[in-house]
Structures are given as C-alpha cells and as structure tokens.
Amino acid sequence: FFFIGCGADYRRDINGSYIDEDKKSNTENCSQKNQKKIVYNTMRDSYLWYEYLPDIEYNDYNSTQSLLDDLRYSKYDKWSYITSTTKYNNLYEKGLYEGFGFSIAQENGKVLVSYVYADSPADIAGFRRGTEILEINGNSIYNRDNKEVWRAILDSTKGQEAQFKIANNEIEESVIVEKSLVKISSIFTHK
C-alpha cells in the first residue's frame, strides 16, 4: 500500500504556462494541504488497519511523510510509504531504484547483508552476502532495531555517497559507496 505524489512530473514552458493544459488543474490541486488530505482520507477509507488510526488533525502536520508516520499502525505495517510518480515508474516499470544496491538482515545485534544486486555500488565496493555492516558515516549500528538501521541507511542516501565500515570474513575495511540507479531483477541470480 502506498501513495504516489502528484505534480512533480508536469512541465511548464519558459513563460510559466503549463505545456499540457489538461494537467494544470491536477497540478494546482497538489498543494501540501491537498496532499495531506489525500493521505488522510485514503488511510481512513482504504487502510487495512483503519480501525487503529489515531484521531488527528492532518492540517497540523508539516509534511505528508510525518502525517503518514503517525497514521501507520507500526505494530504490523512495514510497507506503507510515500513516493513520487517517477520513482514508482522507475521501480515497477523499469526495475530501477536509487540507492546502494543491497538488502540486510539482523542477527544477534549484527547487521548482515542478505543480498547484493549485481553491478550495484555495493557490489563494486565489495559487499557480499554475509558482509557485516559495522558503521554508517562513522556511526555504529550494532544492536539497533531494524527501523533505526534502515533510517541510518536511508538518511545516508541524502548525499551522493556514504562511508560504510564493513567486515568480510572478519577483515574490516572502510569503503565509500556512491548511490546511483540500481537495476533490480525479480529473479535473484547474484552471489
């Protein structure tokens, strides 16, 4: 379950007029206030855990993301997120996403790489299945809960690169990994 942002993919000419006038009304309805209303109403009307939604005033929120964070039933909902139309199309139609190219699992306080996409930045930097991630940008991630670990990884993607301290077969090294578009496959074939 997810929401697709609106308005980001519409273009204007050099005079500021909409290239496609039919899209104009849709874009004008994409104010932050209207986006928050859409998120709130969709969660209220269609969300699997709608009965657990808190009683809130959506206009009190600064962003759709902070609104969604407070609406999500975090006990079970690990899937709801907000994305743009472009990112959605890249992922589901082209098999591309912007990131480092790995997934993780946690075991006894350790963060281990569970999968690395072939030719991804993580693959090129030496990440392998079983690589232990010790630090991200100088911050230890040992014994953090899954949400904190993913927040550290996602926050590190705000810039173009992140420094990871990793261990392969107990040999530690620091590597700089630059985020880029990663080609994913629905069939895991890489080591």
One letter per element, helices H and strands E, the order comes to EHHHEHEEEHEEHEEE
Main β sheet profile: 6 strands, antiparallel
Taking the alpha carbons of the first and last residues, their distance comes to: 30 Å
Our count of helices gives: 6
Shape: globular
Work out the radius of gyration: 20 Å
Percent in helix: 25-40%
Secondary structure class reads: alpha+beta
Total strands: the figure is 10
Point out poorly predicted stretches.
7-25
Mean pLDDT: 81
What share of residues are in beta strands? 25-35%
Task: Report what the structure shows.
By secondary structure, this protein is an alpha+beta fold. The chain has helices at 21-28, 32-46, 64-71, 85-94, 121-125, 146-156, and strands at residues 2-4, 81-83, 96-99, 102-107, 110-116, 132-136, 139-140, 161-168, 171-178, 180-183. Strands 4, 5, 6, 7, 8 and 9 form a 6-stranded antiparallel β-sheet that branches. Strands 1-2 form a two-stranded parallel sheet. A two-stranded antiparallel ribbon has the order 3-10. Helix 2 runs parallel beside helix 3.
Write the layout of secondary structure elements.
Layout: E1 2-4, H1 21-28, H2 32-46, H3 64-71, E2 81-83, H4 85-94, E3 96-99, E4 102-107, E5 110-116, H5 121-125, E6 132-136, E7 139-140, H6 146-156, E8 161-168, E9 171-178, E10 180-183
Helix pairs in contact: 2-3
Brief rundown of the structure:
The chain is an alpha+beta fold and 191 residues long.
Which key terms come to mind for this protein?
alpha+beta; 6 helices; six-stranded antiparallel sheet; globular; 191 residues; two-stranded parallel sheet
